[in-house]
Design goal:
The protein is mainly β and 58 residues long. It has a domain of 37 residues. The protein is 0% helix and 36% strand. The strands form two sheets. A two-stranded antiparallel ribbon has the order 1-2. β3 and β4 form a beta hairpin.
């Protein structure tokens, strides 16, 4: 499948896991994607923090 907005191909995953990360106000929901064929290899990571309501000035 290809993202029409950015013309990027989807990355196939071996697993997708929901988890919680400790935060100052309690647990924060997170999702871990393991790309297909990664096995036990140590890979670089990306942390994406969504701004949410920043666009409405809240």
């Amino acid at each position: 499948m290809v993202s029409q907005a950015q013309s990027l191909a989807d990355i196939q995953c071996d697993s997708i896991s929901d988890l919680e990360v400790p935060g100052a106000e309690g647990p924060i929901g997170a999702r871990l994607y393991v790309p297909e064929g990664a096995g036990d290899e140590t890979l670089p990571g990306l942390i994406f923090i969504h701004g949410g309501g920043f666009m409405i000035g809240a």
